[in-house]
C-alpha cells in the first residue's frame, strides 16, 4: 500500500497491485463523497431548524417588547400615559429590567 518492498515484484504483479489500489482508492473516494453529502444534508437540516428557532425567538421577543411597552404605559405612538402604574412585579416575571 505504501509502495515499499516492490523490488521483488514482476511487471504483472505490479500491474495487478496498481489495479487493486485504483479500485480501493475509488471505493474510498465514493465513501468519502457519501459521507460529505450526508454531513452536508445534516448541517442544512440543522440550519433550517436554527432559522425556525431564531424566527420563533424573535417573534417571542417582539411580544415581550409589546407587553413591556403596554405595561409601562407606553402607547404605540411612543408617548407615555399620565397614569402611574407599578410594573416592577410584572417586569420581573417577564425577565425585563
From TrEMBL:
Could you name the Gene Ontology cellular component terms for this entry?
Answer: nucleus
Please report the stretch or stretches of sequence annotated as the K-box domain. Answer: 1-67
Q: Could you tell me which Pfam families the record lists for this protein?
A: K-box
GO molecular function terms attached to this record: DNA-binding transcription factor activity
- Write out the transmembrane intervals: none
* Entries under PROSITE patterns matching the protein: K_BOX (PS51297)
Protein name, UniProt field? MADS-box protein SVP-like
